[in-house]
Amino acid sequence: MINLTINGLPVSVEEGSTLLEAAQFLGFPIPTLCHMEGLTPYGACRLCVVEIGEGKRSKLVTSCTYPAEEGLKVRTASARVVRARKMIIELLLASCPQSKTIQDIAAAHDVRQQRFKQEYEDCILCGLCVRMCEEQMMAKAIGFRGRGEKRSIGTPFDVKSDACRFCGGCMYVCPVVELRCTYNEPEKAICGACANLSPPCLEKEQFDDMMCYMDPCVACEIKTD
Questions:
Q1: Out of 99-113, 140-154, 163-177, 207-221, least confident range
Q2: Which of 73, 88, 97, 130 is the most buried (most CB within 10 A)?
Q3: In what order do the strands lie in the sheet with 9-13?
């Protein structure tokens, strides 16, 4: 067993576990987008970042790919983590503002607007479809191609793949394929239908090292009753 500390609590997890698996098993919520049980961790979306270490030597890592280590100190909701996640959500909204999945994540994390130019892309390169096609469907009909800004997903040479069985697995896991709103103004990029109240602990008591990680937050539940 590996002994480490998560949010100030000493815990033990099985050797070989990732920080995401350890946190979720123990009930600490961490948002994910490119992660799916049964598929190889990829760490593309960066939503699952957590803070490890102490003081000036602390750093942010993707919990879905970082292994649990003996004596490691992990914080899943520090001020630094919360700021990073909100920035990542804004960037995702700028890329695909019509994605229902991304909008729901934004609403759940109190992101009400995004400050970047909207691109209306049809892919965030999370790699879910590629991994699903290769690891679950055993087809390898699609894959990544190109680098940097030219990176995309498709079949080799854009030719119809004989390996594709039209199973729909790629569409099933895609977080962008399900659309919701059609707004094109930054202040209206997020659907307000499921807007929730901002956690009072973030408004009144700015804990730098550790925010509330409960889901649902007990204080929020009391506030809304």
A1: 207-221
A2: 97
A3: 9-13, 2-6, 73-75, 49-52, 59-62
- Could you tell me if 61 and 102 lie in one domain? yes
The band of 150, judged by pLDDT with boundaries at 50, 70 and 90, is confident
Place 89 in a pLDDT band, splitting at 50, 70 and 90: very high
Cβ-in-10-Å burial (0-12, 13-18, 19+) of 137 comes to: middle
Residue 157 sits in which domain range? 128-173
CATH number for 8: 3.10.20.740
Tell me how far apart the alpha carbons of residues 97 and 31 are, in angstroms, rounded to a whole number.
18
Residues 61 and 110 reside in one and the same domain: yes
Looking at the domain assignment, is residue 27 inside a domain? yes
Please tell me the distance from the alpha carbon of residue 126 to that of residue 175, in angstroms, as a whole number. Answer: 9
**String of DSSP letters for 179-223:** B-----SGGGSS--TT--PPPHHHHH---SS-----SS-HHHHHH
Per-residue pLDDT reduced to its tens digit, 1-15: 999 999 999 999 999
Return all residues near 6 (Cβ < 8 A) that are at least 6 apart: 22, 23, 26, 28, 74, 75, 76
